[in-house]
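Let's practice the habit of predicting before peeking. Look at the sequence and jot down your guess about where helices and strands might fall. Then scroll down.
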Amino acid sequence: MPKLFTFLLILFNVALAVSGQLAIKAGMNQVGYITSKNSMSLMMAAFKNPYVILGLIAYTLAAGTWIAVLSRVEVSFAYPMLSLGYVAIVILSAIYLHESVTLMRVVGTFLIVVGVAMDTVNQIESQLIMRHYDGFMKKTRIRGRRG
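Done guessing? Here is the structure:
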């Protein structure tokens, strides 16, 4: 079972990726809308924008932490946790970028949270069963599971 440090590393990775995304979007809001006519000049302007540069640095750091995460746990365990970034993006883009959040977006984000929670509980249960743990999980197993 992954240690607390690994969970914190995954959360740090999510925070870096979300920060990078928000910074790049803030920078692009300053640069403007890229079209086929202005693509070269605005792409150059984007790569000179401090927010875009900061976002790209955050993404680079996120890639480094992701390598560290994958050296510690299975990708099938770690990758679903990245979807927590969707939740953070919806909330933070509404707060800092003043983007609209529709009911459908809230429902979709909620479903992502439920899915990640179910996967995490399943991972924990699998680890406990593998270790023949006879504690609280034995009495409150998820219905419909064989075993």
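How did you do? The CA atoms of residues 9 and 69 lie 7 Å apart.
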